[in-house]
Amino acid sequence: MITRRNLLIVSLASLLPRPLLAQSCTVAPDIGGAGPWLNSPPLSLAQLKGKVVLVEFWTFGCYNCRNVEPYVKQWHERYMDDGLVVVGVHTPEFAHEADPKRIRKYLADNGISHPVVLDNDYTIWKRWSNRYWPAMYLLNKSGELCYRHFGEGRYAETEAQIKRLLA
Questions:
Q1: Which pLDDT belongs to residue 149?
Q2: Residue 8 vs residues 17, 21, 78, 116, 137: alpha-carbon distances, Å
Q3: Which strand (E) or helix (H) includes residue 38?
């Protein structure tokens, strides 16, 4: 039965920030179809079933991406033995960020060892309907998208979601 109280609760819930609301998992788009891949042979979500996957859209020239980078690297190192796979989708904002030599140098200079796919033509970006740098998406062991965060911050929340999905 719909009451005024129930309508008020629903209305107030719609004002809460998205991460505070219960999130259901949905089918995730694939990560294949672009390349080349760095630090890894080409990957697909089908290959990664049984793993928790963090897909991060970034570009090396983005200041905000650089601020997120230490956390992504820590999660990769801390949880890879527990079943976390970090996949960086490097989608350039500017032409100089599309140069594979520059990207390889950036990875080496900054100790980034997780798989990175070069998405210079925005194939994966468009498939995921992404619009932000950085953007993080967490997939459960079944390959379903269960969490997303855009921009900097919420590091403890994102790590808690990683732990929850690995459990």
A1: 98
A2: 17, 16, 43, 46, 31
A3: strand 37-38
Q: What pLDDT score was predicted for residue 23?
A: 58
| Residues 6+ positions from 142 with CB-CB distance below 8 Å | 25, 49
pLDDT, residue 2, reads 47
pLDDT band of residue 78 (cuts 50, 70, 90) is very high
What CA–CA distance (Å, rounded) separates 25 from 159? 17
User: What's residue 16's pLDDT?
Assistant: 47
Phi, psi of 77 (to 5 degrees): -65, -40
User: Quick one: what percent of the chain has pLDDT higher than 90?
Assistant: 83
> Of 148, 165, 51, 38, which is closest to residue 89 (Cα–Cα)?
38
For 35, phi then psi, to 5°, come to 150, 175
pLDDT in tens, 8-30: 444 444 454 444 444 589 999 99
Residue 57 contacts residue 132 (beta carbons within 8 Å): yes
Of the CA atoms within 13 Å of residue 107, those in its CB half-sphere come to 22
Residues 6+ apart with CB under 8 A from 151: 64, 132, 134
Nearest-angstrom CA–CA distance, 29 and 102: 28
